[in-house]
Amino acid sequence: MSTYQLPYQDRRGFTNCLLSAIGGDGANMAAKLLFKIAAEELNLDGAYDAKYGSEKKGTPTDVSLRLCNFGTPVRESGPTNRPHILCVFRENLIRTLGLNRGLQEHATVIVNTCKSPEEIRDALHLHSGTVHVLDAGKIALETHSRLNMPMMAMLAHVLGFPEAAVIKKITETWPRAVEPNVAAYKAAVDQSVSKSFAADGKYQLAEPAEVRSAIGYDNMLDGGAVDTLTQSTVGRNNAYARSNPAPAFNREACIDCAKCMTVCADPGAIVWENGKMVGIDLAYCKACLRCVAVCPETKKGKALTDPAKEGVVTCSF
Ligand code: SF4
Ligand code: SF4
Prior knowledge:
- By secondary structure, this protein is an alpha/beta fold.
- It has eleven helices and 13 strands.
- The protein has helices at residues 27-41, 93-97, 117-124, 136-143, 148-159, 163-173, 178-191, 228-231, 259-263, 290-294, 307-310; strands at residues 15-22, 44-50, 60-69, 85-88, 107-112, 129-134, 193-197, 248-249, 270-273, 276-280, 297-298, 301-302, 304-305.
- The strands form four sheets. It has a seven-stranded mixed sheet, with helices on both faces. Strands 8-13 form a two-stranded antiparallel sheet. The chain has a two-stranded antiparallel ribbon with strand order 9-10.
- Helix 3 links the parallel strand 5 (107-112) and strand 6 (129-134).
- Helix 4 crosses helix 5 (148-159).
- The radius of gyration is 22 Å and the shape is elongated.
- The N and C termini lie far apart (50 Å).
- The chain binds iron/sulfur cluster (2 copies).
- One iron/sulfur cluster is lined by residues 246-247, 263-266, 269-270, 280, 285-291.
């Protein structure tokens, strides 16, 4: 019999965790592993919701993990809008998605960042709780793991999951990558910096976001069809995913070779008119800078350059 105790319990007996990331970060995989540990090693039950639809890598996504003791009635499996624990894979999502909404009092927040817990508290307008910061990207790089491993490790740590149970599941899930993943797990726990903040009145609790979809039984179109006019992803703004400035474009130096087009992570970002490259659509560009790498040096220089290196600011969001 497990002696594990959930760190929080709402009135229905659940600890609510929200993971906020962008498509391709592996948040879903991390949360699934945690759920597996909870169910198979700690005799817990719960609900799980992953927001798919970030079919183009780089768009915001989130995963809700709601844990309860076995035997607690689990009546729905939708997302949480009242997280006790918030795990942020990309620091810039805090502001762009307003991630403080619905955070409970005395929340636990984990953020992949180089900033201090105090700076993150201010960015998040955190009412009260504990902030854990870690440079998960650096840890992943140094341990030859992936970003989701140090983030999953910190979430397991704040949930109080026994290290042996986590390592057991890592070993079972990725038998050929045990060493780097366990190294990432340990580095995350060792290198994170934490600070607790009392309810000192500096920031108010923010109302939860509305999670109900505009689509539902009470406003469904005839025959249950999806209204593509309002639910299409055509108008999705991928700028949320951009944590660096987009490339700077100099039309004068462009020879319209289209190399940028072939490597672009989202070809909608390269705007082409009448056989000529005319610029970058900031709603689609994720600032991966692949186009900068392949853009040839012409007599007038490179048409695409990294503004961070040139000291040019191209955009902000
Ligand atoms: S790779 Fe550079 S030169 Fe070629 S089309 Fe793109 S911007 Fe122009
Ligand atoms: S940086 Fe270049 S290759 Fe990357 S998404 Fe933007 S336009 Fe495409």
